[in-house]
Amino acid sequence: MEVREIPEIQYGRYSTHSGRDTYISLCVQNKASMKNILTWVGQSSYRIMDRYIKLTPESQKEEVNNVFKAPSTVKNEIN
Q: DSSP states of 11-67 as a string?
């Protein structure tokens, strides 16, 4: 039986912390409630969790567009 050398895995900047960071950011971007996210990741404080939240330029642009979207129907209240 031939014995092969197992290559060393190089993680570089990646760690379980970066996985947690990504998970929380994706939950926020997909509009999960903060209370649920806190429970899922075992955090007790919004302040502590805030450091994990990273928003992409695309998600920020989408949010701004949603905030300033014209209403689809406007009622005429003037008699």
A: -TT--HHHHHHHHHHHHHHTT--HHHHHHHHT---HHHHHTT----HHHHHHHHHHH
pTM over 0.70: no
| Contact by Cβ (8 Å): 37, 26 | no
Per-residue tokens: 16: 């379980």
The CA R_g of the chain, rounded to the nearest whole Å, is 22
Question: Which tens digit of pLDDT belongs to each residue from 21-73?
Answer: 888 888 888 889 989 999 999 888 888 778 777 777 887 888 888 888 866 65
